[in-house]
Amino acid sequence: MTKKLLFLAVAAFCTLAFTSCGGKSTNNSPTANTEAADTAVAKTADWLSGNWEWSNGDLTERESFRLELQVADGKITGRYILENVIVDLKYPLEGTVSANTATIIYYSFCDDEYTGTGKAEIKKLNDNEIEWNKIQTADCGNHVIPHSDVSGDYTPDKLVLKKVIGDGNSADKTGSETETQNRVIINGVDFEMVYVAGGTFTMGCTSEQGGDCEKDEKPAHQVTLSDFYIGKYEVTQAQWKAVMGNNPSYFEGDNLPVEWVSWDYIQEFIRKLNQQTGNNYRLPTEAEWEFAARGGNQSRGYKYSGSNTADNVAWYGDNSGSKTHPVGTKQANELGIYDMSGNVWECCSDWYGSYSSGRGASTGSYRVCRGGGCDFYAGCARVSYRSLCSPDDRNKYTGFRLASSSKQVQRQEKEEAQAQREREAEQQRQSNSIPMVYVAGGTFTMGCTSERGGVDCENGEKSTHQVTLSDYYIGKYEVTQAQWKAVMGNNPSNFKGDNLPVERVSWDDIVGTSGSTQVINDITYYSNGFIYKLNQMTGKKYRLPTEAEWEFAARGGNQSRGYKYSGSNIADNVAWYDDNSGDKTHPVGTKQANELGIYDMSGNVREWCSDWYSSSYYDSSPSSNPQGPSTGLYRVHRGGNWYYSEWYVCVSRRNHTSPYGNSSLIGFRLASSSK
After folding, report:
1. E strands within 424-546?
2. In 3-state terms, the chain is what percent helix, strand and coil (to 5)?
3. 56, 532, 641, 642: least surrounded by Cβ within 10 Å?
4. DSSP per residue over 601-637, as a string?
5. pLDDT for 211 beyond 90
6. Under a CB-based contact definition with an 8 Å cutoff, are residues 437 and 478 in contact?
7. pLDDT, tens digit, 9 for 90 and up, residues 370-420
């Protein structure tokens, strides 16, 4: 057989690489009083750190009770969670711990303003079990904590909780991440991953490949990888259907690998999977794929993935009957991963290119595929063999498996991305300018829509209704303290910092209450208010956004991807709120932007809108450019803030306060009908 030639295989609808594969296509601290005692107890106090869970189904309307605890310097911090309860019922904890007992004081908000406390004692039973004994119920006004729309006390009196290893889905990865598997279940379908510890290996044509190497497998070169996860199996048709609701495959069967999916189509699958799970799945890089196929740090130097005999580990041309087979029915490799040789070709994230620089290509026309397939010779199933296909082409022999970065790497990447956003945001704000984002008009469904799950919406959000808006502009960022000072000459904020959002400003402070007037969108702005003064200084017609404009922009306008929060289904990605804020505001623009490039529409500070508030307004709201009720007692503010839970930062969540009220929880952003 001649060396590899690149051409289009029309019959397979895929751009191929040819080899001896036969021309086939691919596509507490302790309480002791002496240093010695401190050391002794500190050594034993770690018993409480970790996650503990009770699950039996006997609590009224509850399925589990969970503690997530950390112990340091004699203090306990963490969370208390009753599952199947609104997000508000997640409590911060504090207390003290000794060698065998601990005291917990837990907190909860009541009516959005009062803090109630409860008390419990925890006893160590053994290394894997603790006993929770409630001492005091948290009392809050006329009801007990935790409160909800269901009356009664749901904090358990006495329970035995078992230690959960890691996150409850896998063995403990909090230290060195030495676990081998994790999993998530979507619509009853299991997605199982294998942990691959990072390491250095020789990629490409190594000695066990003998004389079978192709030109593009050379030169062999050293590659060092960080920890990552990779799918234990190729993605199945059942998994694809659970996410996408369809099955494009040629060979049909729930446990068969999905195929007839292009690289581009796979990206849509991954996007939807990540929305549903809150995880960061992706395709493996080519280097990750080969390292995992070789068995990672446990590699025994096999030619194929897990064996020197193709029949042991691969469905290929000589044994498959030219069709795919259920995943995991051949032997696994050294890491417990199946089918990395044979069955279907597997798409990688990389562009295809030569190894001449020691790395893959940064751009190109074709994507890398690896592993061989059911209708190809054994040579294609070698761990170093490379092939390629066009990103938009599909065939019945090409599928994929998932990968994800380790949690440590994800944290590093997130920190680096946030640092970059902070630098860019700082540059943008140097001149105290007010960047605005254009929002093309459109029609959307306003109120409690499906992404909220229909279980945590309030009455004021219901009566979903169609709204059509004209084009407008809205602030890219919340108005900062530097911007307020430049106009008003003062800074009323509780948390001080030029790039922090201005807060402790009432609706009346922004709109004004006396003096000369300017009417914009049926709202009268007075000369002692911020907006009037700003308009006089700039010659523009800034105003507050209507509630409908605010929600449309928060949802991403016509580019909306249907997220629960403004820009993500994961609150941590886009919002400063109680779980991550450290009880303070943060510089604007330091979380991810939404689909329109707008920042902080979830969290940081709530944002005043121009509308009067009415809980029943959605029942009679005009369908075109609604302005809110004509009168009222309260003005609307939206978006949640640094103090409250993720429940409050949803794009449809509504709040209201008297126009003269101010709080460190509330700020605003600007809008305008023209630039």
Report:
1. 436-439, 442-446, 465-469, 472-475, 517-520, 523-526
2. 20, 30, 50
3. 56
4. SSSSSEEEEEEEP-TTGGGT--SBS----SS-S-EEE
5. no
6. no
7. 999 999 999 999 999 999 989 988 999 999 999 998 765 555 666 666 666
The percent of residues in the chain predicted with pLDDT above 70, rounded, is 74
Helix H, strand E, coil C: the string for 76-96 is EEEEEEECCCCCCCEEEEEEE
**Is it the case that residue 146 has pLDDT exceeding 50?**
no
List, in order, residues 6 or more apart from 176 with CB less than 8 Å away: none
Burial class (CB in 10 A: 0-12, 13-18, 19+), 364: middle
Among 250, 288, 232, 244, smallest CA distance to 270 is for 244
* CA-to-CA separations, 161 to 98, 99, 117, 153, 445, in angstroms, rounded: 18, 18, 22, 19, 44
Residue 412 and residue 419: Cα distance in Å, rounded? 11
Rg (CA), the chain: 29
Tokens encoding 558: 């016509």
Interacting residues of 299 by C-beta distance below 8 A, sequence separation 6+:
201, 334
- From residue 597, give the alpha-carbon distance in Å to each of 435, 564, 658: 11, 16, 31
Element (H, E) at 38: helix 35-45
DSSP-derived 3-state class of residue 553: helix
Q: In terms of Cα–Cα distance, which of 471, 468, 500 is closest to 483?
A: 500
- Determine the pLDDT at residue 450: 82
Mean of pLDDT over the chain: 80
* Token output for 259: 């195929």
Q: What does the block give as tokens for 542?
A: 């800034």
Rounded mean pLDDT, 612-638: 94
**Cβ atoms < 10 Å from Cβ of 330:** 23
Question: 313 near 435, Cβ under 8 Å?
Answer: no
Better pLDDT: 475 or 167: 475
What residues pair up with 612 in beta bridges, in sequence order?
635
The identity of residue 75, as a single letter, is K
Span 85-92, mean pLDDT? 36
Query: What is the Cα–Cα distance from 10 to 382, expressed in whole angstroms?
Result: 25
Element of type H or E holding 42:
helix 35-45
Band the pLDDT of 290: cuts 50, 70, 90: very high
pTM for the predicted model, two decimal places: 0.44
Give buried/exposed letters for 438-468 (b at 16+ CB in 10 A, else e).
ebeeeebebbbbebbeeebbeebbbbebebe
- Distance separating alpha carbons of residues 632 and 612, to the nearest angstrom: 5
Which pLDDT tens digit goes with each residue over 458-504? 878 888 999 999 999 999 999 999 999 999 999 999 999 999 999 99
| Cis bond upstream, residue 622 (ω within 30) | no
For residue 399, what are its two tokens?
Answer: 């599928």
Burial 299-328 (b: 16+ CB within 10 A, else e): beebbbbbbeebeebbbbbeebeeebbbbb
Beta strands in 397-499 (DSSP E): 398-399, 403-405, 436-439, 442-446, 465-469, 472-475
Tell me, what's the pLDDT at 286?
96
